[in-house]
Amino acid sequence: MRRSGVLLMPALISLGACASIPQVVMNPPLAGSPETIAVSVGPCFGFCPVYDVVLSPNGDVHFSGKRHTAEVGDRDRRSSPEVYRAVANDFAAFRPADGTTARVPCTAAISDTSSYTITWTTADGRRTVATHQRGCSDGPGHELDNILATLPKRLGIVAWAQQTTRPGLSRG
């Protein structure tokens, strides 16, 4: 019995060496710190810009052009905390209850326009999401359309997000 325990020990030590070690996150965000605001612009029926932009409380702006944008790929720039606060304030009226997803009301919309997803993400990863179809004729959706139209200029990403077509593609 004692001999089998001695033989089993090296095997257990060898298996233990193969076990994965949990990754430690360095410098996690402070609890209660302000959240990021991400806006994802989805495709339309045509050549509308498709991109994601994330605004951090310190004013950092991360742009990721997907399709039909002047810049495809990731770009970063610095805005300001004041821009973050202004955008957060403008989006506040359209924000659903914390941790939920809701669609922004629209009385009548054009069906072939871009979709938008606005996501507020807290430091602990909890997400609150508002979805929207651009082109509302009135009501809350129309008010949000007006805010979204100004967002590229306010964030300093107009040159990256502007609509473009790629070589070889036509608007036929």
UniProtKB/TrEMBL annotation:
Transmembrane segments: none annotated. InterPro entries: DUF6438. The keyword S-adenosyl-L-methionine does not apply. Residues 1-19 form the signal peptide. The keyword Transferase does not apply. Residues 36-149 form the DUF6438 domain. It comes from the Bacteria. Keywords: Signal. This is DUF6438 domain-containing protein.
